[in-house]
Design brief:
There is one protein chain. With 83 residues, the chain is α+β, with helices and mostly antiparallel strands. The protein has helices at 9-13, 16-30, 67-82, and strands at 2-6, 37-41, 51-55, 58-62. It has a four-stranded mixed sheet with strand order 2-1-3-4.
């Protein structure tokens, strides 16, 4: 499953680097259980609420301090249904 994380300037200021580091660590931890591919993306046009993350056709807004919960509650569940 592909997960796009905005690395545009607004999301960068909102902590995209920290979100990416957290998600990368978690993807490595779960790589034997689910297939998740993280990829960078430029502006998704929805950057006022946090770092934009796109999964399938849906855009989520994640703050760095919520990235781990987002992984478990959204990314992991979506990946498990895809596999």
């Amino acid at each position: 499953m592909k997960v796009l994380i905005c690395i545009g300037s607004s999301c960068h200021v909102r902590g995209s680097r920290d979100v990416i580091e957290t998600l990368t660590s978690l993807v490595k931890e779960y790589e034997k259980k689910v297939d998740i591919e993280l990829s960078g993306s430029f502006c998704m046009g929805a950057c006022s609420k946090g770092v934009s993350i796109k999964i399938k056709d849906r855009i989520y807004h994640v703050k760095p301090e919520d990235a781990e919960d987002f992984f478990h509650e959204v990314i992991l569940k979506e990946a498990e249904t895809c596999g």
